[in-house]
């Protein structure tokens, strides 16, 4: 029995010594110490051993088991560190290799134009204020002098949620919200998304962006409006830009105007971009209607002010000479990567 044990131990040690991988070691372990292993089968043969010899044999088996286990553990540790060493050797880093280029995203052209526009107005002392996209009819229409039967309501085909709640068709409701707070003077711009039930084409979308502007103080005149827009246009489109104001109509301003800038492509000579006229329309504006001031709690005999509304997509398309608005919404990386 003792010899058989020694033989098993010797064979086990030899096999362990020659093992090349952790898998080999595992296999050795099962084949000797496992349920059907050699050593285990010795224990199973105990019934043939004389009872007085059993403790001795048992002790021998346990000693052999312990010795084999110890050796297995030692070899396994050695193999593991060898494997790690080899892996490290293979993984040397060549610090002279050029680094992989990180793929960074790009700012959307609309966002670039908005940041630039905000930079100019904030520089003039304006505050940026945002309003809700889901709005009450009261702010979107009524307080802006657009009562229920007003024809302007048709022009701004509206997505209604309930009779009184809608998706705002313009950023002008923020004017009413700010005026209502009663804090004076007011000097704000308010960028945001607006909605109209329009079909998608090169110049229309059911959702686009406007930037509203509002200034209210004592003694504000049309000259302030013209000077402000002119200064913004020069900083935004280039120092040679000139502005022109044409009479127009908006229910919430009186007088109202549309402002044009000289075409920054041809400088005013006339080209494809400005359809030969030398001018490009960029915004609607006017002096805030006394009724609007009054309805929002401001005394029109004391205060006056101007307002304007810029179509963000419009100035983005102009600034980057993009001829189809749909490109701004499709998020095609090949398009966006150019900015
Ligand atoms: N809200 C107008 C629109 O959507 C644009 C506009 C015109 C805003 C004149 C104004 C303004 O504040 O004074 O067509």
Please tell me the overall pLDDT: 92
Q: How much of the residues is beta strand, in percent?
A: 15-25%
CATH architecture of the largest domain: 2-Layer Sandwich
The total of beta strands comes to 9
| Morphology call | elongated
Q: Termini distance?
A: 85 Å
Q: Can you characterise this structure?
A:
There is one protein chain. By secondary structure, the protein is an alpha+beta fold. It has two domains: about 1-90; about 110-335, BirA Bifunctional Protein, domain 2 (2-Layer Sandwich). Helices cover about 40% and strands about 20% of the residues. It has helices at about 1-20, 20-35, 40-45, 55-90, 110-125, 135-140, 150-155, 175-180, 220-235, 290-295, 310-320, 325-330, 335, and strands at about 125-130, 135, 165, 185-195, 205-215, 245-250, 255-260, 280-290, 305-310. It has a seven-stranded mixed β-sheet with strand order 1-4-5-9-8-7-6, with helices on both faces. The protein has a two-stranded antiparallel sheet with strand order 2-3. The radius of gyration is 41 Å and the shape is elongated. It starts with a helix and ends with a helix. 3,4-dihydroxyphenylalanine binds near residues 172, 212, 253, 284 and 307.
At a glance:
With 339 residues, the chain is α+β, with helices and mostly antiparallel strands.
Distinctive features:
339 residues, alpha+beta, BirA Bifunctional Protein, domain 2, 2 domains, 7-stranded mixed β-sheet, two-stranded antiparallel ribbon, 42% helix, 19% strand, elongated, binds 3,4-dihydroxyphenylalanine
């Amino acid at each position: 029995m003792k010899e058989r044990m020694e033989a098993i131990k010797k064979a086990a040690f030899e096999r362990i010594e020659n093992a090349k991988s952790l898998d080999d070691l595992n296999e050795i372990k099962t084949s000797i110490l496992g349920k059907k292993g050699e050593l285990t089968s010795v224990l199973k043969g105990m019934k043939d051993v004389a009872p007085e010899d059993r403790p001795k044999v048992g002790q021998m088996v346990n000693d052999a088991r312990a010795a084999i286990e110890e050796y297995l553990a030692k070899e396994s540790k050695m193999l593991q560190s060898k494997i790690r060493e080899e892996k490290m050797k293979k993984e040397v880093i060549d610090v002279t290799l050029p680094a992989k280029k990180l793929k960074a995203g790009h700012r959307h052209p609309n966002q670039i134009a908005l940041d630039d526009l905000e930079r100019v107005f904030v520089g003039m002392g304006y505050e940026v204020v945002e309003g809700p996209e889901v709005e009450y009819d009261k702010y979107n229409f009524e307080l802006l002098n657009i009562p229920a039967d007003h024809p302007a309501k048709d022009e701004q085909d509206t997505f209604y949620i309930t009779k009184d709640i809608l998706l705002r068709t313009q950023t002008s409701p923020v004017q009413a919200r700010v005026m209502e707070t009663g804090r004076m003077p007011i000097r704000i711009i308010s960028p945001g998304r607006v909605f109209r039930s329009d079909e998608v084409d090169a110049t229309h979308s059911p959702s686009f962006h406007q930037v509203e502007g509002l200034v209210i103080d004592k003694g504000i005149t049309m000259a302030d409006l013209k000077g402000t827009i002119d200064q913004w246009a020069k900083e935004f489109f280039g120092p040679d830009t000139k502005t022109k104001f044409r009479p127009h109509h908006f229910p919430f301003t009186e007088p109202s105007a549309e402002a044009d800038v000289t075409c920054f492509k041809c400088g005013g000579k006339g080209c494809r971009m400005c359809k030969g006229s030398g001018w490009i329309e960029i915004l609607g504006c006017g002096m805030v209607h006394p009724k609007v001031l009054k309805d929002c709690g401001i005394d029109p005999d004391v205060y006056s002010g101007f307002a304007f509304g810029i179509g963000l997509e419009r100035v983005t398309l102009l600034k980057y000479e993009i001829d189809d608005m749909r490109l701004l919404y499709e998020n095609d990386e090949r398009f966006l990567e150019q900015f």
